[in-house]
Amino acid sequence: MSERALPRHVAIIMDGNGRWAKKHKLQVALGHRKGVEALRGIIRESSDLGIEALTIYAFSTENWSRDKAEVEALMGLLLEYFSSEIDELDQNNVCIRILGDKEGLPQKQREAILRAEERTEKNTGLKLNIAINYGGRAELARAARVLAEKAVRGEIRPEEINEQRLAQELYTQGLPDVDLMIRTSGEMRLSNFLLYQCAYAEFDFPAVLWPDFDVKAYHEALEAYMHRERRFGGRVS
């Protein structure tokens, strides 16, 4: 890896599981399973590199509209993931945070993610944020609602509502903004993911389908990021 600064916060839209399955003449569920295997390697590498936070898009609020069998397979994989991976994640000092509407999940899945959060909450290594039943617009609306309720109760004045206070009510409270957003499969859109947090993120859109996104591809995305000049609205010096 280059000696230039790594991103503090990497976010990934893991796109292409279904197309990978179709390409290999397999059921979509097997594409998602292969995607979980790819994720395992990226989490380990992020931890080994000392990246502060990794946020992955696992299931959006819009994904409920998918075929029932696919949704059931994804929910089953969610349970399986936390059952099979939690020991290693905890041993490696990974702190898990779930982003999204937990109450909208089935009971077994909700209980599994709450246990994972509770077990790892004091870990000080990689902050692994998993967006489940998540939508960026819903997150912003939720934060605005919380601030409005505080204003009604007299806890804050409307003129005190600013970007910092809004950020404190987001699921990512306390985390740095996203430095690098990666979306695999060549698609070039955010799909309602971390809309506020990606205000000044650098983007990378590798054509590789997510199940084939390995550590080498991850390094290539990180290297590309480290050779960009970030301006944050300013001019080139």
What is the topology?
Layout: E1 9-13, H1 17-23, H2 28-49, E2 53-60, H3 68-91, E3 95-99, H4 107-120, E4 127-134, H5 136-152, H6 163-168, E5 180-183, E6 202-204, H7 215-226
Parallel strand pairs: 1-2, 1-5, 2-4, 3-4, 5-6
Describe the structure.
With 237 residues, the protein is an alpha/beta fold. Helices cover 43% and strands 14% of the residues. The chain contains seven helices and six strands; from the N terminus they run βααβαβαβααββα. It has helices spanning 17-23, 28-49, 68-91, 107-120, 136-152, 163-168, 215-226; strands at residues 9-13, 53-60, 95-99, 127-134, 180-183, 202-204. A six-stranded parallel beta sheet has the order 3-4-2-1-5-6, with helices on both faces. Strand 3, helix 4 (107-120) and strand 4 (127-134) form a beta-alpha-beta unit. Helix 1 (17-23) crosses helix 2 and helix 3 runs parallel beside helix 4.
Gyration radius, rounded: 18 Å
- Terminal CA distance: 25 Å
Mean pLDDT: 95
Helix proportion = 40-55%
Overall geometry? globular
Spatial strand order of the main sheet: 3-4-2-1-5-6
Order of helices and strands: EHHEHEHEHHEEH
Helix/strand structural class: alpha/beta
The DSSP helix count reads: 7
What fraction of residues sit in β-strands? 5-15%
Low-confidence runs = none
Largest beta-sheet characterization: 6 strands, parallel
Q: How many DSSP E strands?
A: 6
